[in-house]
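Have a think about this chain, tokens included, and walk me through the fold.
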Amino acid sequence: MSAEATNPGAPLRRRGRARIDLRRIGRVALLGPASRGRLPDAIGHVADAHRAHHPDADLAILRKAYVLAESSHRGQMRKSGEPYITHPLAVTLILAELGAETTTLTASLLHDTVEDTEVTLDQVREEFGEEVCYLVDGVTKLEKVDYGAAAEPETFRKMLVATGNDVRVMSIKLADRLHNMRTLGVMRPEKQARIAKVTRDVLIPLAERLGVQALKTELEDLAFAILRPEEYEHTRALIAGSGGAEDPLTEIAERVRTTLREADISAEVLIRPRHFVSVHRVRIKRGELRGTDFGRLLVLVAEDADCYAVLGELHTCFTPVISEFKDFIAAPKFNLYQSLHTAVVGQDGAVAEVLIRTHQMHKVAEAGVIALGNPYTPDSTAVQPFEPADGERADPTRPGWLSRLLDWQESAPDPDTFWTTLHADLAQDREITVFCTDGGTLGLPAGASCVDAAYAQYGDEAHGCIGARVNGRLATLSTVLSDGDTVQPLLSQDATSGPSPDWLDHARTAAARIAITGWLDAHPEGEQALGGQPDTPRPQPQQPTDDTSTGRSKQGARVVSVAVDGPGTAVRLAGCCTPVPPDEVTGFTVRGGAVTVHRQECPAVARMQAAGRPPVAARWNDDGDRRDTGECRVTLVAESFGRPRLLADLTEAIATADAAIVSATVEPPSEQRVRHTYTLQIPDAAGLPGLMRAMRDVPGVYDVSRAQHQAVTT
């Protein structure tokens, strides 16, 4: 096993390069710069690593940055006893190993100067330019004396906003946290645990989203060792005991080399050890580890076409495990990752996972956005990411997840709300792309529903969403979207429409949850109408003669009188049973003191009475007060046998009866029977029997009834 696999605290380094002695570097740093005209010995390793990726890099600015950093931090010591300058040097070395360009390394050397020394941002701007100043400011923490307990979440908010404009800010922060995690042993156990939890919950997901796997995997192992020490030690023992003489991966790797050589495919075949957390996850998944579970085969080739040629040879000469095949070249992950994944069976039945990628893909897979060089300046030597159709994702500074994060954080001014929502947002580790009917695309987390798509496309206008079409078919708002779906949210024309609390059960994106919660908090006066269309009652004239209030529901203009303790009570018709005259009705008091009116036979009435909620006497007002029209809303259920054009014929019958369809759903056929649920706006309750007869007359429909349950909108 490699040093990285057996020792998660080992520094990242290129193969063949000697281990860096940071204590020696620290002693050299204290001696100050070397002779004029050449780099100080203390950053010689940084220069070597940088030139390995950028042979023509001008190192003069690195020398200048080092001189300022060393002189500013002189006399400061780390808790480990090392000179403080060893920390920015180590952070810069990590980034140099991953191929970061000169501007990033310059800012990395200076990243703690403004926070911990007398150096100011103006000084950095004057000596190194606006770009370096922006990066240094982006990673500078906010002072606890100014922000108190909100300092940490607000620092991360500031850093993420800065990352939205320049992704290199987060690259420096990740390398900074990695070195701090490597040297965390000198801290108190409780502080180690606190830092490790933030690393696990925030920094590691960010590293995954930026594609920096080299940093992400080591951060995972370091946090794992602190937060779950017993499982870590058990995993460590398993890895240590796996290095026997008979390694099944070695045999399979040699067979793969022979197969590709005979096929005249030039490829490098490596055994890539799994890191600690990866081994732990496999053990949890499978129970007992196999010999091939401690690593994977990595096949590196020159061109994209060679990847598929390798795949063809492996699937021809070995028995493939088809369920393990994934093509992340044709469909790259949202964090720039590209590879072919497969698994093959060896002669003795051992199953080996195989990753196939080009050398360029491998560089991006390890270093993510860091491998892009400076993404803001055209550079023919920089690694170019894939160019998807989505223009937003082609820009590495604003991938889909980051755009969503920057959008919702503006709606979360409270630090606690921001912090908890950030944790929840980053816990969603996969992303899908769905298409809009206007040709645009939406990047959403896996598991997102039509509710999320509506808010992503329309913002606050999605409060009035009454349903959606997915791939051209009507679907419920709770429908979970799949990668590649086409979605069309359907919005109500009613300006008073609003979301239902049930929508929170279906929302996966932070933007949708914040918007829904904000609307509900701003409208606490009552339950929502069917399909998320709230009934916002209009103020009614008070009745001075008795304690009876007359309320008018926005579902229709039919007036309802309700006996209550005082005048002026808000009244609305329940969306679950949509009562209309002459239905027998009863009411119940809900949030804010309003009264919701149900049909007597509504199941909700029995549930509320069983729960001990006292009913409020209600009756239809027949005093002729019709200041609006007599329109009302009703929900009907049509039971029918399935046949072509059934839906078209039903909607035509409804339209002929002068009824407007507010929402509709068609359940999947069961034994050739189909159930349709319609919420309709009708001109007058007197026309309801005729409407139901017209629907029953449609060929294939054998029953039409009033809804007795909470209807689901589409």
